[in-house]
Design a protein that fits this description.
mainly beta; Jelly Rolls; globular
């Protein structure tokens, strides 16, 4: 992402600070609370809004990238990036452990949560980067493992006039103690094109 600037961990603000937060060199290491999650209503009927997210401003025309590593072991262990307007309007995207394998996917929520997943077994125990790019009336989510190619994860509406924040998130809906090492948190220019290819997307 061209012209990116690192967002210091202590400049962003926590939504539901995890029970354990440590700085190791330039990395942020967090451990999740018991049965932490983000979800609204669909299929399950409940509202959970106690997952952990470290958020900074995502103005129109910008993108935020997060890189992290985690050992996903328990059902629904998850980490990645969250884009949040309020408790009824948000997107989370990254890797989630479901059906016995890591899955690459996203939950887009506008009062009701809308979930999509695709198996990604080769993404386990690899550095994962997720980018949220805001342009016009859309939010575009892309991700890659290691130094691999970007994959399009989701394109979803986001009104150009709303105030949104974004940053790393994690939660563990069936246990406590998912440990996630976040190694990168940067802001840069929004993607030049929805269908552009390569690292300069």
């Amino acid at each position: 992402m061209e012209g990116n600037r690192t967002i210091p961990w202590n400049v962003a603000h926590w939504l539901n600070r995890p029970p354990s937060v440590d700085i190791d060199g330039d990395d942020l290491i967090v451990s999740t609370a018991d049965r932490s999650d983000f979800w609204r209503r669909t299929s399950y009927g409940f509202i959970h809004d106690n997952g952990h997210a470290l958020l900074a401003a995502l103005p129109l025309g910008t993108a935020i990238e997060v890189t992290y590593e985690a050992d996903f072991e328990a059902l629904f262990d998850q980490a990645g990036i969250m884009v949040r307007v309020d408790e009824r309007t948000w997107v989370k995207a990254g890797v989630e452990f479901s059906d016995g394998v890591p899955q690459l996917g996203a939950v887009a929520t506008r009062e009701f949560s809308d979930w999509s997943l695709a198996p990604a077994p080769e993404w386990i125990r690899r550095p994962i980067t997720v980018r949220a790019s805001r342009s016009g009336d859309a939010l575009t989510i892309r991700a890659h493992k290691g130094d691999g190619q970007w994959q399009l994860v989701r394109v979803t509406p986001l009104a150009p006039d709303v105030v949104a924040n974004a940053g790393p998130f994690c939660c563990s809906p069936t246990r406590r103690g998912l440990v996630v090492r976040f190694t990168r948190f940067v802001r840069g220019a929004a993607d030049a094109s929805l269908h552009a290819e390569g690292p300069g997307v």
